[in-house]
Design goal:
Blueprint lengths: L5 H29 L1 H6 L4 H8 L6 E2 L5 E6 L6 E3 L6 H4 E4 L3 E4 H4 L1 H5 L5 H9 L9 E3 L3 H11 L4 E7 L5 E7 L7 H10 L8 H4 L9 H10 L16 E3 L2 E3 L11 H6 L3 H22 L23 H4 L10 H12 L3 E2 L5 E5 L5 E3 L7 E2 L3 H11 E2 L2 E11 L2 E10 L6 E7 L5 H18 L1
Parallel strand pairs: 1-6
Antiparallel strand pairs: 1-2, 2-3, 4-5, 6-12, 7-8, 7-18, 9-10, 11-14, 12-13, 15-16, 16-17, 17-18
Length: 448
């Protein structure tokens, strides 16, 4: 005899249905609340991909408003475009597949238009309104940048042009570079390229400085009364062994050479004598004051390998010890000599668009301190000023079988406003680096 009534069966069925609804509810809570953020953040989330592709990134503009990077196309077919094909290392790139680099990375949140308010969340997540980024205006001058790129030609190396008083970077070249418009199709080849085109040599290149340190060490030595410019130097042109080579003065000094002649003729021997008197601690202090041992503060990846401590004062005094420098560091140190000893901090951004569409000027970068006194800085400038041109051109050993050509200049010579630093890798011909540097000086003069 069946003791279960229809009502009992109905109650059992109701309990099963309720348990099923409860299981579904718990599952929805788990996947939407507990695991919701993880799911939304997955790279293969179609909604995330669609939202990313619909972002109207803000523009990157040069100091005069010229467009350096912008997003074009219809909402469902947007593309990041760079009108200047050679500007990759200076501006960076944006790629859905490969991410961001350079300024595109440094100001990603601004360029994407990221906002945290309720209205922004409502518009983007409920109304599915496209996300619109904000503009960034930078210190680069598109015309000077293009001139510098053209002057470099096929040479390998880097260039920095900046304003002496403000630290504003007007041009920044790294060769070989890349076309950010073709990044996706060339990315694997760029990564595998032994010449490292994706590396921004201007800010991350680590170069053996050689005798480009000479003006800075002598300026500091003047400050400390360790030398007198008119003081005689014995055997200024004596041979100095470096990496298996014998180095002498770049040009022949007079027999009764002075410290002024040591600088004019780029003599390494007396610099070793001076470095021996200054000692490792004295050299460390000089390099620190001129900014050679600290990374410049910029919205770029400026990270480099940690420097090893100085080991040999004789080699450090001629730039052949453990110190390596980037062209930007050298440009800032040179600007200190042009700015009466005040070391500027670099600046790369002049204005950022706010949420109301108004460009907000960014404050000038503060000075980084006094590297040397104005008296010493002016004295070194006078020594470097030959025929109205204030420049310093040297060849620096960068290994047993390689050397780099350096060109340092302050212009105009009588009242410096701009610092120019050019390095050409693996080139013993100083005419190559001199042609680039003097060509850029001409381009700068034509704009004044």
């Amino acid at each position: 005899m069946n003791n279960h009534s229809p009502q009992t069966h109905l109650h059992k069925m109701q309990r099963v249905i309720l348990l099923g609804f409860l299981a579904v509810a718990l599952s929805l809570v788990f996947w939407s609340v507990v695991r919701g953020e993880a799911i939304l953040a997955r790279d293969d989330n179609p909604r995330l991909v669609e939202a990313e592709l619909r972002i109207q990134r803000g523009r990157i503009l040069d100091r005069n408003g010229t467009v350096l990077a912008h997003t074009v196309g219809e909402p469902d077919a947007l593309a990041r475009t760079y009108p200047f094909e050679t500007i990759g290392p200076a501006v960076g790139y944006y790629s859905f597949r490969h991410g961001t680099a350079g300024l595109e990375a440094g100001f990603d949140d601004v360029l994407r238009g990221e906002q945290a308010g309720f209205t922004a969340v409502f518009n983007q997540q409920i109304l599915h309104a496209p996300q619109v980024g904000r503009d960034v205006q930078i210190t680069l001058d598109a015309e000077l940048q293009a001139s510098a790129e053209a002057l470099f030609g096929q040479a390998q190396g880097a260039l920095v042009l900046l304003e002496v008083g403000t630290g504003d970077i007007l041009a920044m070249v790294s060769h070989p570079g890349y076309d950010p418009n073709r990044l996706d199709e060339n990315f694997d080849e760029l990564v595998a390229d032994e010449t490292a085109p994706l590396l921004n040599r201007a800010v991350q290149g680590q170069y053996q400085p050689g005798l480009i340190l000479q003006p800075f060490i002598l300026a500091a030595a003047l400050d400390r009364d360790r030398i007198q410019l008119e003081g005689q130097v014995l055997n200024a042109n004596r041979p100095v062994p470096v990496n298996g080579e014998i180095k002498r003065c770049q040009t022949t000094p007079p027999d009764d050479a002075t410290w002024a002649d040591v600088l004019r003729h780029r003599c390494p021997g007396p610099m070793q004598d001076l470095a021996d008197r200054l000692g490792l601690s004295g050299l460390d202090d000089i390099f620190m004051r001129f900014g050679f041992t600290t990374q410049p503060d910029l919205p770029l990846n400026t990270a480099t390998a940690a420097l090893e401590p100085l080991a040999d004062p004789l080699q450090a005094g001629i730039g052949q010890d453990n110190l390596t420098v980037s062209p930007l560091q050298v440009a800032l140190a040179l600007a200190a000599l042009g700015n009466d000893g005040r070391l500027p901090a670099p600046r790369l951004v002049t204005a950022i668009e706010d949420e109301n569409g108004i460009m907000q000027a960014q404050p000038p970068a503060p000075t980084a301190g006094d590297a040397v006194t104005g008296r010493s800085a002016r004295t070194i400038r006078q020594l470097l000023n030959t025929g109205g041109t204030l420049s310093f051109v040297v060849s620096a050993l960068s290994g047993p079988d390689s050397r780099n050509g350096w060109y340092l200049a302050l212009t105009p010579a009588d009242q410096p406003q701009y610092a120019i630093v050019v390095v050409v890798e693996n080139s013993a011909d100083l005419d190559v680096v001199r042609t680039i540097g003097e060509g850029l000086e001409t381009a700068v003069s034509s704009q004044r």
